[in-house]
């Protein structure tokens, strides 16, 4: 058991070895509403969904201990659903881990770059049969400036993601149902 935990931690450290989070990451400033306006992901199971994904909305609620709750809205074939994730802070500010119930494993999140008022680039790792990396671009509004999109694409390519894995999805329609901020 201890061995397994140690190995998981070692893997996570290796994964993080060449990725640094946003300098002086500030969770309070990161709080609030974000739209996921870009995704780069080359997991084979995700490929069929690439053309179907929508720019969904999420909210980050910081907790006093440095952890955060993420509520993410997703337009699915079964309607608009909200999912909650509990992000636990790692030792380095800007890095979190969370338990993915869907994949039954701990994943890790790094906020690679954000200026809080406009955009954030977030890197997600999982170690499965092989290690998949996902890069997401978050923005405070649905209209992102082309420079920011370009920055995101450059970063995704630099992480070894193929060009065709980079998706800039259209806005979700009526999701969340009340549609605040749309
Ligand atoms: C964070 O999520 C936990 C578990 O769902 C919940 O108990 C807690 O009230 C949430 N806190 C905030 C500030 O949203
Ligand atoms: C955040 O980035 C946007 C776009 O690059 C820029 O217009 C804005 O001034 C930046 N805000 C801060 C606080 O740096």
TrEMBL record:
It comes from the Eukaryota. PROSITE patterns: LIPOCALIN. Transmembrane segments: none annotated. The keyword Cell cycle does not apply. Residues 1-17 form the signal peptide. Residues 31-171 form the Lipocalin/cytosolic fatty-acid binding domain. GO terms for molecular function: small molecule binding. Pfam families: Lipocalin. Keywords: Signal. Belongs to the calycin superfamily. Lipocalin family. PANTHER family: LIPOCALIN, LOC555483 PROTEIN-RELATED. This is Lipocalin/cytosolic fatty-acid binding domain-containing protein. It comes from Oreochromis aureus (Israeli tilapia).
């Amino acid at each position: 058991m201890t061995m397994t935990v140690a190995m998981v931690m070692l893997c996570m450290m290796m994964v993080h070895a060449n990725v640094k989070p946003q300098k002086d990451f500030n969770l309070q400033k990161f709080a609030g509403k974000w739209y996921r306006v870009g995704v780069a992901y080359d997991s084979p199971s995700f490929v069929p969904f690439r053309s179907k994904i929508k720019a969904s909305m999420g909210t980050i609620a910081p907790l006093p201990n440095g952890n955060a709750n993420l509520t993410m809205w997703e337009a699915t074939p079964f309607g608009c659903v909200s999912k909650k994730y509990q992000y636990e802070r790692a030792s380095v500010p800007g890095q979190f881990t969370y338990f993915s119930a869907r994949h039954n494993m701990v994943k890790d999140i790094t906020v690679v770059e954000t200026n809080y008022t406009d955009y954030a680039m977030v890197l997600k790792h999982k170690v499965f049969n092989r290690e998949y990396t996902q890069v997401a671009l978050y923005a405070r509004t649905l209209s992102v400036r082309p420079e920011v999109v370009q920055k995101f694409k450059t970063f995704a390519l630099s992480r070894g993601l193929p060009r065709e894995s980079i998706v800039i999805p259209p806005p979700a329609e009526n999701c969340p149902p009340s549609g605040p901020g749309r």
